[in-house]
Amino acid sequence: MTRRALVTGITGFIGGALSKRLLAEGWRVDAIVRPQSNTDCLPFARDVNFHIVEDGQDLTPVFAESRPDSVFHLASLYLAEHRPDQIGALVQSNILFPTLLAEAMAATGSRCLINTGTAWQNFQGKDYHPVNLYSATKQATEDLLLYYASARDLSVVTLRLFDTYGRGDKRRKLLQILIDSAKSGDPIDMSPGEQIVDMTHIDDVVDAFLLAAEHQLAQQRTLSETYYVSNERQSVRALASLVSETLGRPIEANFGGRPYRAREVMHPFSPQSEDLVPGWCAKRRLSDQILRLSQGAD
């Protein structure tokens, strides 16, 4: 029997990669999108059943139609630092929407939710200490989902992510900036570079989501679990050196050319082996992927 997945955040980097893999493995994929979402950017769009919803809309009809075996919630609004006029959008995207999602699941008998959190919920290595308002809204959603797990029999597994990278990422993250600088020779101003970054390739991240779903579907009991997706770690300075050495080109990095951001994460939370998704381990090495990214390889 064909499994059915409902995905939020399908036009994002991780949501798109996950949906592509789900389709390749024979899942039927439905996706919730906003009216302004650009689904034309997805090469597999014709194979997805899209449900266009407005902010605050009841999602019960979507679930009544799609009847998913697993729901993958990746949609969110990320803001490293917020302005007062952005608070409403943060609450709408990161708290209200997933609450409506859980309510519709409970109303229609859809039990299995894979939620996405962030390691920024663990500032200074603490069990809960949000780096910013964004990570506080992600924790608020986890707390709300505890209610749905306890009172409404919703099975919830949350994956807290660190940094992710890979081909097709349009977010202009640090790794791609360093690769572009090495190729162009253009100098870049950087922070002092002593902060540690934890980076996992997108294919390994997708593996984690799929394993989490399999783990959840195999259980008869209701789950309320949190796992981390963590891989290679090094300082920003070491990452710049690795990119330079791998590509055989110098990077004109002006370390200290800009300050650390407010509440910079200098040492990310360090999960233990039991904190990782059961059965998951990363297979892609950063040193191998740097060359592929510089060459535009898939």
TrEMBL record:
InterPro entries according to UniProt: Epimerase_deHydtase, Lipid_A_modif_metabolic_enz, NAD(P)-bd_dom_sf
Gene3D superfamilies, A to Z: NAD(P)-binding Rossmann-like Domain
The keyword Nuclease is assigned to this record: no
Ranges for domain NAD-dependent epimerase/dehydratase: 5-216
CDD domains: SDR_e (cd08946)
Keyword terms: Plasmid
Domain of life of the organism encoding this protein: Bacteria
Listed name of the protein: NAD-dependent epimerase/dehydratase domain-containing protein
